[in-house]
Amino acid sequence: LTFPDLDLVIRGCLDAILLEESDAAPSVGEELTYTAYVADGHGDPIELIELFFEVRTGPNAGTLGKAMTDALGEATFSYVGDGGPGDDVVWARTVSGVNVSSNQLTVSWQ
User: Fold this and answer.
1) Residue 83: pLDDT above 70?
2) pLDDT tens digits, one per residue of 32-48
3) Residue 29 burial (CB < 10 Å; 0-12/13-18/19+)?
4) Residues whose CB falls within 8 Å of the CB of residue 28, separated by 6 or more in sequence, listed in order
5) Are 83 and 60 in contact (CB under 8 A)?
6) What does the alpha-carbon distance between residue 67 and residue 94 come to, in Å, rounded to a whole number?
7) Three-state secondary structure along 6-64?
8) Largest CA distance in the chain
9) How would you classify the pairing of strands 64-68 and 50-57?
10) How many CB atoms are closer than 10 A to CB 33?
């Protein structure tokens, strides 16, 4: 017995991290907060997943943070853009276990 087109998605297994884009156009020296949403393959939130956040490139490159997801599957990361004007690229990924990364976002510091 075979199932050639079987697509099995298990509830509660980490499938995606979505980093929410901020609508802000921050000025240098202000604090900016990002929210990451962690979900399984059914779109249900997963709590107690530790995420690592990083400003990968830009005037604030090297800024790091960690946060644990809550019952809504959300984790937040805030940092102050004190590196000067320019474009930062921010992302999030899992700290341990299944290696899943978020989308990358760019913020322009004025």
Assistant:
1) yes
2) 999 999 999 889 999 99
3) exposed
4) 81, 82, 83, 84, 85, 109, 110
5) yes
6) 10
7) CCCCCCCCEEEEEEECCCCCCCCCCEEEEEEEEEECCCCECCCCEEEEEEEECCCCCCE
8) 63
9) antiparallel
10) 11
What sign has the CA pseudo-torsion 94, 100, 106, 107? negative
Tokens of 12: 């509660």
Residue 18 near residue 36 (C-beta atoms within 8 A): yes
User: Residue 26 has which token pair?
Assistant: 């921050």
* pTM (two decimals): 0.86
Give the C-alpha separation, 28 to 108, whole Å: 9
